[in-house]
Design brief:
By secondary structure, the chain is mainly alpha-helical. It has one domain. Helices cover 52% and strands 12% of the residues. It has three helices and three strands, in the order αβββαα. It has helices spanning 4-13, 44-53, 56-84; strands at residues 19-21, 25-28, 31-34. The protein has a three-stranded antiparallel β-sheet with strand order 1-2-3, covered by helices on one side. α1 (4-13) packs antiparallel against α3.
């Protein structure tokens, strides 16, 4: 299970972007940091691009979208249950 509140707190606490990546470094406009990885040099570019793409702004957007979709799902599930139980006034009367 995702701990969205923890992920959100981590994203809010992280250095803001925009983040950048090149062959050997990943970081923000606030500074550059070496990538520390046990991966082979063949994957350095891919690792750097991934780390840069998984920045706080992107993570916060994903969390917001997930929260919104889960709320929509819960509302629709509730409406379906009302319809199943024959309570059309609770569901808005739509069929």
């Amino acid at each position: 299970m995702l701990d969205l509140e923890n992920l959100k707190a981590l994203a809010l606490a992280a250095t803001p972007g925009p983040w950048i990546a090149d062959q050997f470094f990943v970081g923000t406009t606030y500074g550059r940091h070496d990538i520390v990885s046990g991966a082979s040099e063949i994957l350095m570019d891919e690792n750097a691009a991934y780390i840069a793409a998984a920045n706080p702004a992107t993570l916060l957007d994903i969390i917001a979208r997930l929260v919104r979709v889960e709320a929509e799902r819960d509302a629709l599930t509730s409406e379906i249950e009302c319809i199943k139980n024959g309570n059309l006034t609770q569901s808005g009367g739509a069929l």
